[in-house]
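pasting for ref. prot 1 ->
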Amino acid sequence: MQRLLASPHLVLLLAQLFWAGNAIAGRAAVGHLPPIALAFWRWALALVILLPFALPTAIHQGAAIRRQWKFLVALAAASVATYNTFLYLALTTSTAVNTTLVSATIPVAIAALSWLWLGQRLDRRQSGGLLLSLAGVVLVIARGDPAALAALRFHQGDLWALAAVASWAVYSVMLRRHPCSLDPATLLLMQVSLGLLWMLPPYLLEWRHSGGFTLDLTTASLITYVATFPSLLAYAFWNRGVTRLGPQIAGLYTNLIPVFTALLATLLLHEQIQWFHAAGLVLIVGGIWTVTRPPQPRQLRAGARP
């Protein structure tokens, strides 16, 4: 097993599988766990597991944490507090396949926000990829029915999924604009800790409204899965894969998340894969590949001209 996990390609595949499983777990939790409760207890359990490994380094970097505390609070709000919470809210009224396909546009959303916020211009190739992915999202949201767009009959879950995409794009561009000097384990620890503080008020409001949930084998299994596999193991495998192969190659593996989600949703949730899911997947993945692939030598030479 240790030899298998030494393969960067295998660990990247496992990371995408675990992240796909997050959408399956969120959909399976409907009727058993309220969405904010699932997000809150996911990170609460992840914090308990993370503390023994990350706390010593965090104590050593206490001065750096105090210098950057405002930035860390904002990062936690945009990532831990909102992204998965919005994702689980989306899954209460939309399918796992739909939600994951909309979420697959995160790389394109990051490119668009970088253009607006950081002034990083998009060339014609990247602009074309952005439009291609957006066409795929529109197709999925409309469920292949143009009349749904004309009447603006969007499903609430798809709008939550778009909000999740926006929150992760904000988080990613914030990191790019203000790189953090903390050790990765310390940064994750601070994000989880501060994110839980952000989530506490809405969780208490949800608990007051819904009456909480029953801790049984089903709910305990769901919380344990999302706390360990998509939260901790997927991040650890992802970091190992990026270190060995680089971000460009590793980034291509994220295109597998919608594929894995569709397969798992068909097997475990008995969701039906429609033609517009397949067409949307082709458009979204094609757009992501167009935006994120490195320029060709001809494009580099052309860009160097005055």
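and prot 2 ->
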Amino acid sequence: MSYEPKYTITTVLLAKVESAAALRERIRGASVELSWIPALQKETRSRNAHASTAIEGNPLTLEQVRNLEGRETLAGSDKRSQREITNYFSGLRYLEKHSDKKNVRHEDLFELHRTLTDGVMDQGESGCYRTIKVRVGRYAPPDPEMVSGLMFELLEWWNQAAVKLSPILSSAILHYRFESIHPFADGNGRVGRALGLWELYRRGFDTHHVFSVDEFYWEDRQRYYDALNEVRRSGEDLTGWLEYCAEGLCQTLERVWLRILALRVHSDTKLVLRPKQEQLLQLLRARASLAPTEIWAALNVSRQGAMNLMRPLLDAGLMEKVGGKKTGRYILSDPKATTRQQG
């Protein structure tokens, strides 16, 4: 018997799915300018590797993760933390290499698990389903003798029924069901989030591999865990989880669009957003407008430091000042207007 997910397409979920699909089309339309893709792909790999491992407790900062890509060691941090990051980079390369794979087998999951957990397993064996009972907080996943059969059903659903759904939904369903089965002794969180990303790749939703959805989960880890647990409390009804994941994908796509705009400022100049600049843009999106004093207080920088961060964003047309000299506030620019000005 194949796995059959239970959920309801609510008006909230439908609106979020439609919003994510529209944002994706806007990003896809921008892909005619191929020059921005490599820089955005590199940044996305770093953000995915940082966020997914940070959820599991990895202490490395985003800047350290950026510096670690392509290197074997990083001064000032422990070897295990570094190994988790380099493993995740390898796992992302595995997903990119197999992004057009039509049918995923158990062996493919074993290979991905080995790649992500090599040398960092706390229990069990890398690359094979667990033979021990495990607990995730208060949740007790299925007994080990049930794992193979449940994963067979999940793979059957993924390879056959999932293609009938929007990839926004199928990636979220796959993510949750994998985590509920918890088929490996260790590393399930990283693998489950990677599988959700892989589905977006396989279905052509993230054609250029520039979405870092794991950032959304990491920024409010408690909400992420609560959303997973709520499915169990509601009798395996996935509706709330799907709404949550669709919200995360919308937020991710909005961030990608801002990064694209920054990279497209001028044909000969690429603006790569610094962390505090991206933080500022996110604050403006959340609060609609900010006074100058609110900006430097929120970013924990001096007045001059704030202006140094803001000036490139103002020049790029990503944000603008409205109001008088003394009462002026800063807002996000209309992305469509910015694109028209650049064109």
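The radius of gyration is 21 Å.
The CA atoms of residues 6 and 150 lie 16 Å apart.
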